[in-house]
Design a protein that fits this description.
By secondary structure, the protein is an alpha/beta fold. Helices cover about 35% and strands about 15% of the residues. It has 3 domains: about 250 residues, Rossmann fold, CATH 3.40.50; about 30 residues, no CATH class; about 160 residues, IlvD/EDD C-terminal domain-like (Glucose Oxidase, domain 1), CATH 3.50.30.80. Helix 5 links the parallel strand 3 and strand 4. The chain binds FE2/S2 (inorganic) cluster (FES).
């Protein structure tokens, strides 16, 4: 008996009226209203996830990318059908874009699965969009390929080159310290984001783009091409063409996103000195395929892979410079001996084959040789201790080095409102050696684990010239920020983790070399505080997406995905 052929194109996923012939007839009748012929509808169908939104400046070029991808699909003999999903920008998503990342992932998964397509091109860019798309695509299981919008070009203010958002924070700090007046800071605001595209420093968007290329989910060369370059459109066209090939080959995400491929992505994270968010997001993507991230193994990798990429905030260049230096390729070549080279990529060739066939390197200043790194160890260190039983992280490459071993007195802020109210109070009892502690800014506490870990230096200390202090929280931090900042403390304060029990005056010890973060309060006292602890309440927490979120969100070490979207643990670990 011949095996039943798997339906493809318009024939897959029919609405069930009890008569498959009628379902197909009706579907085709509707899509013909879009002007398609039967001949066109017989070709492989490539879905394009269209993430244009008037609220998402980082995705301003998406309509152009859709056109270029469509052209590539047609050149390769397919038809392209674009469709919208949730699109999230960092500055327009209250309470935080992270709160909505899982919603975008669900939207992507369900629409990729529900609608007839043989493969899909995911257009991401801004911080949460790339992880959400990869999470959704991993769960949907159809052949998928990523195109990013690409970074912005740099701007200039009074002759000084600027990068979003490292310089947004730096200049705002200068404004707080009285070094830039209201008129000057407003004028700088006109220059910080001069073109379409994503933040052009080594923030989360740049980090995720480079990690995705190392993961094998993007055509080579795609991570660093600026959003407004013609090369970006050519890359999108090639992506569209390749999506047709992937449809024919059945090259699904699970064949590319293996534990070895995730390890490659984490090695890229360390070599770039990338955003700490890259860790949370890639943990969530891996979790969708039942792969767990082993934080101790990741920390050990940190000793093997130095920071090589000289980009802000750890270094001095910008993404357009990295593109001019060859993009991801020179980084991959420099860490070649650490990579799993036989990992399959979206091209149908292995990562090793792609590295070998990329153009030869040329003289450049952005990617350092291993013999002369920006920072001798990987950018991120994993901490454990009595204050973080399940882990915390610090971006050691971006911190004032003398604070990497530090004991200080805790100055506690109960939540973000408390922080906003008291931080700049001239009467706040705070010294440069103190440890600023922010509670209730984790996945459930905020909710949505905002990028609030970059606690500003209290105004009176900033005005006195203090540039860095030890700051700790269960929040995340923008990859564009810098400082001695401990993040992702788990369990979070809102889960009654030890962070939730810290009081002003307690002693806290950070020792990055020993990978320790300890609260120096005895167990008896902590037990007393635990008994008196009260959970935080959120307005509207009993209904809607907020209820789903609070009921299901996991902690940082599991990627803050929703528990019910993660398959049972398979025992497979990365890196
Ligand atoms: Fe979109 Fe920075 S706000 S990438």
């Amino acid at each position: 008996m011949s095996e039943k052929k798997k339906p493809t194109g318009m024939e897959q996923g029919l609405v069930n009226y009890g008569d498959a012939g009628f379902s197909l007839f009706l579907r085709k009748a509707f899509i013909k209203a879009m002007g398609y012929s039967d001949d066109a509808l017989s070709k492989p169908i490539v879905g394009i996830v269209n993430t244009y939104s008037g609220y998402n400046a980082c995705h301003r070029t998406v309509p152009d990318l859709v056109e270029a991808i469509r052209r590539g699909v047609m050149m390769a003999g397919g038809i392209a059908v674009d469709f919208p999903v949730v699109s999230i920008h960092e500055s327009f998503s209250a309470p935080t874009s992270m709160f909505l990342r899982n919603l975008m992932a669900i939207d992507t998964e369900e629409l990729v699965r529900a609608q007839p397509m043989d493969s899909v091109v995911l257009i991401g860019g801004c911080d949460k969009t790339v992880p959400a798309l990869l999470m959704g695509a991993a769960s949907a299981g159809r052949p998928a390929i990523l195109e990013v919008t690409g970074p912005m070009m740099t701007g200039f203010f009074k002759g000084e080159r600027l990068g979003a958002c490292t310089d947004c924070r730096r200049m705002w700090g200068m404004h707080r310290a009285g070094e830039l007046d209201a008129e000057e800071i407003a004028a700088a605001g006109d220059k910080l984001m001069p073109t379409a595209g994503t933040c052009m420093v080594m923030g989360t968007a740049s980090t995720m783009a480079l990690m995705s290329e190392a993961l094998g989910m993007m055509l080579p060369g795609g991570a660093a091409i600026p959003a407004v370059h013609a090369d970006r459109l050519r890359h999108a066209e090639a992506t569209g063409a390749r999506a047709v090939g992937m449809a024919k080959e059945g090259l699904t995400p699970d064949k590319i996103m293996t534990k070895e491929a995730f390890a490659n992505a984490f090695k890229m994270l360390l070599a770039t000195g990338g955003s700490t968010n890259g860790l949370v997001h890639m943990t969530a993507v891996a979790g969708r395929l039942g792969i767990e991230v082993d934080l101790d193994a990741l920390d050990a990798l940190s000793d093997e892979i130095p920071v090589l990429v000289d980009l802000k905030p750890s270094g001095q260049h910008y993404m357009e410079d990295l593109n001019n230096a060859g993009g991801a390729t020179p980084i991959l070549r420099e860490i070649r001996e650490n990579l799993a080279l036989d990992c399959m990529t979206v091209t149908g060739r292995t990562l090793g084959e792609e590295i070998d066939s990329a153009p030869a390197d040329w003289g450049q200043q952005v990617v350092r040789p291993r013999s002369n790194p920006i920072y001798p160890k990987g950018g991120i260190a994993v901490l454990k201790g009595s204050l973080a039983p399940n882990g915390a992280i610090i971006k050691q490459s971006a911190a004032a080095q003398h604070l990497l071993k530090h004991e200080g007195r805790a100055v506690v802020f109960e939540n973000l409102e408390d922080l906003a109210e008291r931080l700049d109070d001239p009467n706040l009892d705070v010294n440069p050696d103190d440890v600023l502690v922010l509670k209730n800014a984790g996945p459930k506490g905020a909710p949505g684990m905002p990028e609030s870990g970059y606690i500003p230096i209290p105004k009176k200390l900033a005005q006195a010239g203090v540039k860095d202090m030890l700051r700790i929280s269960d929040a995340r931090m923008s990859g564009t920020a810098f400082g001695a900042i401990v993040l992702h403390i788990s369990p979070e304060a809102a889960e009654c983790g030890p962070l939730g029990l810290v009081e002003t005056g307690d002693r806290i010890l950070l020792d990055v070399e020993a990978r320790r973060l300890d609260l120096m309060v005895d167990d008896q006292e902590l037990e007393k505080r635990r008994r008196a602890w009260q959970p935080v309440q959120h307005k509207g927490q009993d209904r809607g997406y907020l209820k789903l979120y609070l009921d299901e969100v996991t902690q940082a070490e599991e990627g803050t995905d929703f528990r019910f979207l993660m398959p049972a643990k398979s025992g497979v670990k990365t890196p």
